[in-house]
Amino acid sequence: MRIRSAWLSLTAVAVLVAVACTPGGDDGGDEGETRQLVWAIGGAEAQPGGVHEQVAELWNEQNPDTPIRIELLPEEADQQREQQALELQAQGSGFDVLGVDVIWTGEYAENEWLESLEDVRGEIEGATLPGPFESATWGDELWVAPYNSNAGFLYYRTDLVDEPPTTWDELCEEAISVAEDEGINGFIGQGARYEGFVVNWLEYYWSAGGELYNEDQTQVAFDTELGVQATEFMADAMADGCYAPGFNTAQEEEARNEFQQGNVVFMRNWPYVHSLLEEDEEAPEFDIAPLPTFTGDGTISALGGFNNGVSAFSDNIDAAKEFVVWAATNEEAQTMLATEGSVPPTMASVYDDLADDPVMALLGDVLGEAKPRPPAPEWNEISVEMQRALFPAVNGEADIQSSVEAVRSHLETTVEQ
Amino acid sequence: MADTPVAPARSVEPAGPDQSSVRAGGFSERTLARLFIAPSIILMALVALFPVVYAFILSLNEYTRRQHVGFAGLQNYADALTDGRFWESLRFTLVFTVTSVGAEFLIGLGFALIMNQAFRGRGITRAAILIPWVIPTVIAAQMWFFMFNVTPGFINNVFGLGNFNWLGQQGWATFAVIFADVWKTSPFVALLLLAGLQTIPGDLYESAMTDGANALQRLWYITLPLLRPAILVALLFRTVEALRVYDLPQVMTGGAFNTESLSILVQQYVVRTPNPGYGAALSTLSFVIILGVGLVFVSMLGRQLVIGRTTER
């Protein structure tokens, strides 16, 4: 009897999580007539004192009749998704507003967990940057309201590099030669086998001109040749020392540590790193630039961030809808994201007012060119398949051509259904 | 489940069919015992058996992500058994199990023999040996990630290996995960073996020494045979645990470089890219594998218990 499969422990965990996350909808909400809206969102900024809480307070001041409170979800995106899924799968009304990662839109829409926002589309579309808006739609329908965004930057050492490179090849040449002179390493990004690896790979692939799907995501537009180019670049960078030795085990924080300690010349990372580097007096002198491309024209970045969805099982859909539209289009709330936290807003006009802030100024340029990963219901599976095919190829353990073809054929299985 | 202690005079003759002393209520002693045990058996069945049966039922159904599509028969099993990924993770799991349990046994036996000696500072040595076992596995895994990883690279610094990428290449990644597991659980094996060692009467060694047996002979002809039950229990526990390893490879490598264990694969299909039918099929398969290996040990142990005197688990 003491032999148990991992299944059992998983079940136990699931039960515990379910118990832990059955939220206060029943116990805390019945204060007279007004029932509090519940906003299920996670991450550092959802913590007490974080910027999401300040946004909630602002809403409560302006809308005392329909106050909202945050139901804090875990830090990890996967765990946030799992907690929301447990509530929504059971059709629970515990969450009214959901913090939805840009890559979950399709999955949530397909599961019928979200209330469509088509009736308020006009209001939102006019105010929002195009990339974040695209990430909020699936099947040509608006499912969530954009809230905050994210994009990759090139961080470089100003004490070692005069001008940031504009092409990937230039970057690698410079990374190798400077690193050799200084006795440090070249370039680091997110090369461990996880979602971040796919993000990094896509930035090469997109900057070569590639696409995964056509406009309305009904057909595969994957270009094998460009896929090979992107993968070959990474494999070469790995082999010739352009990438720092820890690249293939690095996530965001490992990359940041390397750069912060002055061990690398270049780094690809998210905007949050900027303030951490500025606060650290020991950190090397640095600046930020748009990510290079293969041609040297423009820039491209994978889009991150969170949007707000209205739960289809909410008891107060109208108020929840008002809130998500407000959070997407209220200038004060959107500005707050940038000024009180280091969270990139999605509202276009906010960036004009924040032109003095170097991070926001650069974001204003980069976000216009940022591309969302396809928010398809099967994105998680696609991502896992891409990791499984491309990671060994980048590490010189699999044939590049056939790995890229494997990605293409997997993408094709996703549209045939 | 040990039998309830009976009066010492009876324990010479273990409970046999001849002991059907009928009580006033009409129940024999044996029936009464079964009656008393029943609640705990039922509870254990609910806790342990129900999920297994439920997983099996799930595994016969087809899902598209979370949506139930219909009855699938054994299709999920066929898919799993033809999926190269299942065999790769099974291979890693077996390699991990055999090497880590083997190393843990040898090191644990060494530790146990040391801890069983009488010497100054024995208490401190015992405590020191047990420290790794006390650390929660995820924390140990994160710690060894930092030790092995290029950044910050403690191991590379200590041994002057430059930027050797332990976790970023085939083979060495497996080695690192196994190393961390051996570090973590050798003390546990040592603890179990130490308990076994302490049941061996000292006069056996004394008479062996009188007969002129050297240390190696004493180990081979006295310690190891008498330690057999404890060894089997230690190996059973460790093998079963190693077969369901999840946290160490998940934290240290994320399953990259052929370090994806069966449990990581199951977790992926249950949580990350949900497909309850396929996930349940995979977990049922790993359950069967683990059950099979467990039963081999239990049957060896059962024979041992009949022959030997020790009932220590």
TrEMBL record, chain A:
Q: Does the keyword DNA-binding apply?
A: no
Q: Which residues form the signal peptide?
A: 1-20
The protein's matches in Gene3D superfamilies, at most eight in alphabetical order, are given as: Periplasmic binding protein-like II
Gene Ontology BP annotations: maltodextrin transmembrane transport; maltose transport
**What GO molecular-function term can you cite, just one?**
maltose binding
- Write down the superkingdom of origin: Bacteria
Query: What are the alphabetically sorted keywords of the record?
Result: Signal, Transport
Q: Name one GO cellular component term.
A: ATP-binding cassette (ABC) transporter complex, substrate-binding subunit-containing
The protein's matches in Pfam families, at most eight in alphabetical order, are given as: SBP_bac_1
Q: Read off the CDD domains from this record.
A: PBP2_TMBP
Q: Which family does it belong to?
A: Belongs to the bacterial solute-binding protein 1 family.
Q: How is this protein named in the record? A: ABC transporter substrate-binding protein
From TrEMBL, chain B:
Coiled coil spans:
none
| Residues spanning the membrane | 35-57, 92-115, 127-151, 171-197, 218-237, 278-301
* KW Nucleotide-binding (keyword) present: no
Give the keywords, sorted.
Cell membrane, Membrane, Transmembrane, Transmembrane helix, Transport
Q: Which InterPro entries match?
A: MetI-like (IPR000515), MetI-like_sf (IPR035906)
Source domain of life: Bacteria
An example GO biological process term is: transmembrane transport
Using the UniProt annotation, give all residue ranges assigned to the region (Disordered). 1-23
**Where does the UniProt annotation place the signal sequence?**
none
Please provide one cellular component term from the Gene Ontology annotations of this protein: plasma membrane
Q: What is its main location?
A: membrane
Q: How does it sit in the membrane?
A: Multi-pass membrane protein
Q: Where is the ABC transmembrane type-1 domain?
A: 90-297
The protein's location, in the record's own words, is: Cell membrane
Membrane found in the keyword field: yes
UniProt lists the family membership as follows: Belongs to the binding-protein-dependent transport system permease family.
This protein is called: Sugar ABC transporter permease
Species for this entry? Phytoactinopolyspora alkaliphila
